[in-house]
Structure formats: structure tokens, C-alpha cells
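Folds abound. Consider this:
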Amino acid sequence: MDPSDLTFSICLTNFDPYLSNGSLYKTIERLGFYNPSAQGQEETLRIDIEKVDEWVSKGAQISDRVKRLIKDSKLSPEELDARKAAKKDKADAKKAAALAAKQEEIKKQAEEAEEEAPAEEAVPEEEAPVEEAPAEEAPAEEAEEEAPAEEAAPEEAPADNPEESSDSEDEDEKS
């Protein structure tokens, strides 16, 4: 069924959890109808206000939607058309605002992506010198290894000649 063919009945119902047909509501009386897709000379809304008032006086409760429809039924056709046009304009403005907000969000995401792209390219350039640094440190490490070998050589010399080591100890004691 095409949604444009929908017509809604405005009915008085009674809640009854013990109905045998599986429904929780029993229709007591049809009070009117609403055809939102009416065009041209078709009737959009008809409600028997006298019957609605009669049932309300007996304790019936009106839904919010039906309250609005009753309010609309009291308007002239021109006022109703103006109200529909205002409602449509408001909906269009809301859609336009949502579309603008979405476009702004997409623009921000694109700008963030552009900012991240140069940052990612800069990282490899910074990493390249880091890779070269260990190669430069290697000669320094070799120099450090050679220095202790040179220091160890004088220590070994006294060990080879026990007389020199004892003389140096004697000189240390005199000083």
C-alpha cells in the first residue's frame, strides 16, 4: 500500500484485556477521520466535535494527537493551509541546517586528514636521521673500547717487571 493512500479513523475505544480476538482495545464508536494526503477538493479532516465532547464528559480521555486534530478542525481551510505551509517551511529549514552541519563536519574531517597527512610524511624524515645516528655512534664506541686497552697497557707493564712496581710503591710511601 502506498503511504499517500493512508486515511486514519478517529475512534472511541475501550481497553479490555480479556477480549477473545487478541486485541486489547474494543472500538465503541467512529468519531471522524483524517486524510493527510488529501488534495484539491478532498476532505482532509472531519471530526464530530459534539460526540467527542459528550464522551469526554463521560470520562473518555483524548490522545495528544487527537487533541491537535480537534484544534486543527476548528481552523478555517485557509488557516489550516497556512499552518501546514509554516510546518513545511520549518521542516525544510531544519533539513537545511542539518545538511549544512553535516557538510561542515565533512569539511573539518577533510582538514584534519590534510593536517595528519603532512605530519605522517614528516615522521619518516625524522626517523631517517635516527637510523644514521647509530652508525655515527659506532666509531665512538670503538674509540672507547680502544681507550681502556691503552689504560690497561701501563698496568700490565708493572706486572711484567716486579721491581718497578715495588719501587713505585716505595715512592708512594715516601710522599
In short: The chain has two domains: 3-74, 77-128. The mean pLDDT is 75. Residues 3-74 form a domain with the S16 Ribosomal Protein; Chain: A; fold (CATH 3.30.1320.10).
